[in-house]
C-alpha cells in the first residue's frame, strides 16, 4: 500500500510540473505562480548576453552583429499571444518612431513552436507590415538559442497546458552597445520618456560626444525600481531649492543695502 501511495504521489508531482526547458515547465492544472518567473536583476545587470542566430523573413542574422555597438531594446514574446505581448510590441513600435534612429529594437520569440509564418502573422497584425525599419529585428530562435539567450539575461517562463498560455515577465531589456544587460523596464505601456532614458542609461559606460548632453539630462533622474520608471532625483530638487533660496536671500540683501544707502544720501 505504501509503495502504491508513494508511486501515486510521485506521478502527481511529475504531471504537475514537467520541466523541459530552462526556466520553463508545463503546468497541467492551470496554476499561475508569477513569482517563478521573477527576474533576479542583481545577478544579470552588467552581464554580457549570449550571441545567437536569429531567423528572419530575410534570412539569418547574428544578434551581436545587429546590435553593432548601438544601445538596444530586447523584448521577448510568443507570436500566438493575444494579450500582453502584442500590446507591448505595439507600444514599443509606436514610441520608436519619435526616438533616435541610432537605437536598436529586437523582438524574439521564446516559444520553440513559433516559426516564420506565426511571426509574419504577428508582424502584420501588430505593425501592419513585415517590412520593418532598418533598426528593427524581429525573428525566431532555435530551441538551443532560446535557452542560451534567455538564460544569459535571467528570463524565465512556463506554459499552462490547460489555458494554452505562457506565464512570463512582461519586460523590455536594455542592452549596452557592447552587449551587456543594463536595465529592465516592466509593463506594456512604457512611456516614451522612460524608453529614451533607458537607452541613454545603457550607454553610460561608454559615452560618446553625441550623447553627452543626454547623459547630463539622465543625471537629473534616478531609476525607481518599485515603479519601473525614471523619476526626478529628489536631491536635485532640494539642491535647486537651496540655490534658489540662497540667490533670493543675497538679492534681497543687495537691494536692501542699496535702498538704505539711497535713503541715507
TrEMBL record:
InterPro entries to which the protein is assigned, alphabetical: SCO1/SenC (IPR003782), Thioredoxin-like_sf (IPR036249), Thioredoxin_domain (IPR013766)
Annotated Thioredoxin domain residues: 43-205
Coiled coil: none
Organism, as annotated: Hydrogenobacter sp
Residues reported to bind Cu cation: 81, 85, 168
Entry-linked SUPFAM superfamilies: Thioredoxin-like (SSF52833)
Keywords: Copper, Disulfide bond, Membrane, Metal-binding, Transmembrane, Transmembrane helix
Top-level division of the source organism's lineage: Bacteria
Annotated S-S bridges: 81-85
Recorded family membership: Belongs to the SCO1/2 family.
Name of this chain's protein: SCO family protein
CDD domains: SCO
Spans traversing the lipid bilayer: 236-256
Molecular function in Gene Ontology: metal ion binding
Amino acid at each position: 500500500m505504501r509503495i502504491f501511495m508513494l508511486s501515486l504521489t510521485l506521478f502527481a508531482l511529475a504531471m504537475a510540473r514537467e520541466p523541459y526547458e530552462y526556466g520553463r515547465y508545463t503546468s497541467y492544472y492551470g496554476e499561475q505562480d508569477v513569482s517563478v518567473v521573477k527576474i533576479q536583476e542583481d545577478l544579470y545587470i552588467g552581464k554580457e548576453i549570449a550571441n545567437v542566430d536569429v531567423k528572419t523573413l530575410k534570412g539569418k542574422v547574428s544578434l551581436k552583429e545587429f546590435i553593432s555597438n548601438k544601445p538596444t531594446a530586447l523584448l521577448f514574446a510568443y507570436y500566438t499571444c493575444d494579450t500582453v505581448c502584442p500590446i507591448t510590441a505595439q507600444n514599443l513600435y509606436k514610441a520608436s518612431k519619435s526616438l533616435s534612429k541610432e537605437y536598436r529594437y529586437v523582438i524574439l520569440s521564446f516559444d520553440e513552436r513559433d516559426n516564420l509564418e506565426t511571426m509574419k502573422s504577428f508582424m502584420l497584425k501588430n505593425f501592419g507590415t513585415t517590412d520593418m525599419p532598418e533598426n528593427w529585428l524581429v525573428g525566431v530562435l532555435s530551441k538551443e538559442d532560446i535557452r542560451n539567450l534567455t538564460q544569459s539575461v535571467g528570463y524565465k517562463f512556463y506554459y499552462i497546458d490547460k489555458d494554452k498560455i505562457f506565464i512570463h515577465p512582461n519586460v523590455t531589456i536594455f542592452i549596452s552597445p557592447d552587449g551587456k544587460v543594463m536595465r529592465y523596464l516592466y509593463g506594456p505601456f512604457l512611456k516614451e520618456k522612460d524608453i529614451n532614458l533607458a537607452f541613454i542609461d545603457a550607454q553610460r559606460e561608454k559615452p560618446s560626444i553625441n550623447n553627452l548632453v543626454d547623459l547630463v539630462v539622465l543625471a537629473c533622474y534616478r531609476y525607481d525600481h518599485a515603479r519601473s520608471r525614471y523619476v526626478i532625483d529628489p536631491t536635485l530638487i532640494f539642491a535647486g531649492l537651496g540655490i534658489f533660496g540662497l540667490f533670493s536671500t543675497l538679492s534681497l540683501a543687495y537691494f536692501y543695502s542699496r535702498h538704505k544707502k539711497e535713503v541715507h544720501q
